[in-house]
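Exercise 7.
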Amino acid sequence: MRNERELRLAGFRRVAGLDEVGRGCLAGPVVAAAVILPERHRIKGLRDSKMLPRARREALYAQIVDRADAIGVGCVEVELIDRVNIYQATKHAMHQALERLPLAADHLLIDALSLREIGLPQRSIIHGDAISASIAAASIVAKVTRDRICDEFDRRYPGYGFARNKGYGTRRHFDALVADGPCEWHRRSFAPIRQLLAGEQLPLDLEFVVLDEETLEPS
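Solution. The predicted structure, written as tokens, is:
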């Protein structure tokens, strides 16, 4: 909470951490979350969601929902990602998350990005989800929200393994894409999907994502 304490000493009272998940996936939405933690949040073990086993993420998510002063979530679907590019879609999801906060933030802590078009003071922190409790909480909320969306789409499109790969380009995911083609949930603007739809052969040196067995995140 060092960054949060500094800002509260400077007079800010509603410091929102912002983070997103899903930028590097071949399928599904990009999800962002904004979280305002109380000054003494008493949530033990907040850290980058990508470093946490799923059961631990879910437990922390429940605590954040119960104890945070405010939470907002933004979700930008594949259609907009393909239309405006993933970077702009990520910023749009963050805008949504801020707009959906039940309390207006007066300062932002953002993982690696800047939202200069928003008229709020802000601090962009590289690897912020590892060193800011508010950003870590936002990363957990965004990750759990997106994982649940992936579980739903796995039931709708069971051949791609979305419940496990979360839309990342694992070998099994690419095998399904080659065999069955993309579904409506795939991002057509991303190179491998675009190549498959054009009838092109995927590169021989294509790198597959390898998932960590505990976190189900790229290792």
